[in-house]
Amino acid sequence: MTFHIENTGIINQSDTKWRDSQNYYGRVSRTLHWLTAALVILQFSVVLAWRGTGKNTVTLFLDSIGPHGSLGLLILVVTLVRLYWTWLNRKQRPPKAPGLGGRIASLVHMAFYMLLLFLPAFALLRQYGEGYEIRLYGMTMLPAAERHIAWMVAPADLLHSPLSWLLAGLMIGHIAMALIHRFWFKDNILARIAG
């Protein structure tokens, strides 16, 4: 999609629905946000179902929809696209809240992006370093390494699980704060991303 600039130097009205503005997030930002949320929730659902009930019809079904490695790779790709889109819209996004609350929100969002980048990256490094191929829903994206590569495996062995639980905690806090803004503060913070 291209964005047309009229002779007046103003972006066409139809294009503003797709791009961010000072008042709300555009369709692309909202779609990327909710796609990320769905992928991460599915990822945790699959992991928790396997840990809680082991191999059964439900866990095999969930795993067929969202194999752990494939979901991780998708989360990494969507996060990279989100970062690029955020950078393109950096001068026209809704402003952060002033004061301490705004600074905390900015730090939490930065932590989200870092976790959504590093968690799948560490896991993919570990998978490749352990001699397995990188696959996306059955398609080989990177052939298997021929040997065990310890430096690729070590970061994920050390950090993947604790950082995953940190991400889960941040998600719960993020959802709670969105609901607090909507029902207690009665502001439009949730509406800006909900559409």
UniProtKB/TrEMBL annotation:
One of its GO terms (cellular component) is plasma membrane. Keywords: Cell membrane, Electron transport, Heme, Iron, Membrane, Metal-binding, Transmembrane, Transmembrane helix, Transport. Residues 25-193 form the Cytochrome b561 bacterial/Ni-hydrogenase domain. It holds the Pfam family Ni_hydr_CYTB. It is found in: Cell membrane. Its cofactor is heme b. One of its GO terms (molecular function) is metal ion binding. InterPro entries: Cyt_b561_bac/Ni-Hgenase, Cytochrome_b561_oxidase, Di-haem_cyt_TM. One of its GO terms (biological process) is respiratory electron transport chain. The chain crosses the membrane at residues 32-50, 70-88, 100-125, 165-185. The keyword Membrane applies. It comes from the Bacteria. It is a multi-pass membrane protein. Belongs to the cytochrome b561 family. This is Cytochrome b561. It comes from Marinomonas polaris DSM 16579.
